[in-house]
Amino acid sequence: MSLWEYANPVKFLRLSERVLPWLWGGAAICLVVGLVWGFFFTPDDFRQGSTVKIIYLHVPSALMAINAWFMMLVASLIWIIRRHHVSALAARAAAPVGIVMTLIALVTGAIWGQPMWGTWWAWDPRLTSFLILFLFYLGYVALWEAIEDPDSAADLTAILCLVGTVFAVLSRYAVNFWNQGLHQGASLSLDKEENVADVFYFPLLVCIAGFVFLFLALVLYRTGTEIRVRRTRALIARETRTTDLHAEARDA
After folding, report:
1. Angstrom distance (rounded) from CA 96 to CA 141
2. What pLDDT digit, counting tens, does each position of 69-103 carry?
3. Which of 88, 109, 113, 177 is the most buried (most CB within 10 A)?
């Protein structure tokens, strides 16, 4: 069985119907367990106090905001190369989810930054690139809405996605590029010494799993909705053309 089979809208919808209940269930379980565990059963940090617990929302949302853009990039490249409409619709479906994830990360980052840095916002390299990524998300959605022809919209938004990937990369690795930034290093890393303490680490992993399941569920659901909307519009257009032809035939 080839992955490309699911470029067929009918097969994609069938797959979504089978997978979605498991994704919704996994998201609900992981988020409830992770957030309750993290917020109510972990101690305060000796330096950051209870403020450290914002990581259970901030880190997963920031991670998904960046990875959502990379997912849109892959889907856009598939559209450009293979012209599979499902991939273009999947990229479009992921954008609003990415906007929400980015907004959550920005707001929770500000809540954490105020007591830690003494300000709600600083023009730190990572924060600035993350804000620009948020603006690219808004521009991506606006471009889809502004262009009537869906194929032209998919082409132009794919190009915008390629450009915006620069800021997705900067959002992820800005701390490595600019050591003078205020933002701390990664909370999760292959280097065990850079990770947060185990007491925070394990509930954080559960929260991240919940956000991943939630993201996948929302994207599959929204992609299915986009497919059905496009199908409905095509049927309406066909019926309109048929009605117009019949009217012209009667007039003749």
Report:
1. 7
2. 999 999 999 999 988 889 999 999 999 999 999 99
3. 88
Looking at the predicted structure, is the pLDDT value of residue 6 above 80? no
Neighbours of 34 (CB within 10 A): 22
Can you tell me which residue has the tokens 């989810």?
A: 97
- Residue in 101, 132, 138 with CA at minimum distance from that of residue 215: 101
Q: Rg of the Cα trace of the chain?
A: 22
Helix-helix angle 198-251:85-117, to 10 degrees: 140
Please name the residue ranges forming H helices in the chain: 9-40, 55-82, 85-117, 125-146, 150-177, 198-251
The pLDDT score that the predictor gives to residue 174 is 55
Angle in degrees, 0-180, between the axes of helices 150-177 and 125-146, rounded to the nearest 10: 180
> How far is Cα 63 from Cα 5, in angstroms, rounded to an integer?
29
DSSP SS3 for 4: helix
| pTM: predicted TM-score of the whole model, two decimal places | 0.86
pLDDT digits (tens, 9 = 90+) for 119-163: 777 777 778 888 989 999 999 999 999 998 889 999 999 999 999
Of 40, 54, 42, the residue nearest 200 (C-alpha)? 42
